[in-house]
Structure formats: structure tokens, C-alpha cells
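Okay, can you check this protein?
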Amino acid sequence: MLALDTLIYLRGQSQMKLSHSQSSPFVRKVKLAAHALGLADELELVETNTMDANDPIRLVNPLGKIPALEDGRTILYDSRVIVEYLDAKAGGDKLIPASGAARFETLTRAALMDGIMDAAILVVYEGRMRPEDKYVESFVTYQREKIQRGLEVIAASSPKYRNGAMPDAGEIALACVLDYLDFRQQLNWRDHASNLQDWLADFAAAAPGYEATLPPTA
């Protein structure tokens, strides 16, 4: 957990800058977290093209990846770190429990969702970055199997959404996974986790910023 005394609190003094793309599920995690915590109005969204060698993102994050957050002199990257930072900035113990078993259960669910998102993005890159004659179907199948197994584990727990306007970090990540899979149409998650349809409908009805942060054609 980020130590509160190491954070630079600039709330009300300057606007945070979030390097983003509307299609990124990892960026969406951060934006949904900001909405839940009442910090969305403090985010300046900086449109970013990670494939452009001249994009300023490479000066903010040497890996050239999004999301990246600038808060005064504080620069953070990786959605997990940024979500925890925002949670701490809003007082802590909201999206991520401060301690105990609940903390690690939440972080583990969030990590599983991140792994599914990673696999889904790798499928996109395989089709986008490789010439057609170099496409590796076995690699794509391997990634899709990760997605399927992850969804089945979540579905087996029969989750119910009951947290209203304050989802936890794992729930935010799950919503991002399901909507990203619909956006990219890599597989129909309903075939593997049909009981998550009601979960997503309940989340969508209650979570602040849900519609505003959807992928562009979802």
C-alpha cells in the first residue's frame, strides 16, 4: 500500500493529467475509479497514441504505455498503482481495503482481471502487428484459453453486485474486462460466464461514470 506520507496532495490546487485512450481497458479502470471517488473532475484527459514515436507519453512513462498519471511532480504508471494512489488521495480504504484478508482478496481479483485484459490485448496485437502470413494461431488460442479460464473462475463464485456507487477495485476491473471483450469481439464471454450478465447490468446501473467511460463503439 502506498504510504500516505509519501503522497503529494494537490487537490484543489492543480489538475491531474491522465494519458489516455478511450479504447484502453486499463485506462478505463482509472477513470471509473476516479468517478467512484469523486475525483473525475480533477482529471485532465490527455489523448495519447502509444504507437506514435513522437507522442509525449514516452517522456512521461519510459515504457510508452498508458495509463500514466501526472499529479504535480508525482508521475505514476500502471493502472494498479494509479488506482491505489487515487484511493489513498481520497482518504483510503474505499476501492481497496486497507488491510487484512479483504485487501488481498480484492487485489487478487483485480490481478486476475488484469491478466484477462493483458491476454485480450495480446490477441489484438497479434492481428494488428503481424503480417497475415506470420500470424500465430496457437498463440491466439493460448491467450483465449486464459480469458476463458479466468471468466469461468469468476462466474463460479456467482458474484452479485451490491456496492452501489462505490465498487471495489476488483469489480471495476471486471466491468472493464466484460465491456472490452464486447468491444473487441474476441469471444462471447456470455458463453463462458452467463451469470455475469446480471452482474454487469447491476454494476452499470449503479457505478458512476459507467456510460461515459465505455469504449468508443461498445
In short: The beta strands are 16-20, 43-47, 68-71, 74-77. The CA atoms of residues 24 and 121 lie 9 Å apart. The helical segments are 25-37, 57-60, 79-89, 100-129, 137-156, 169-184, 196-206.
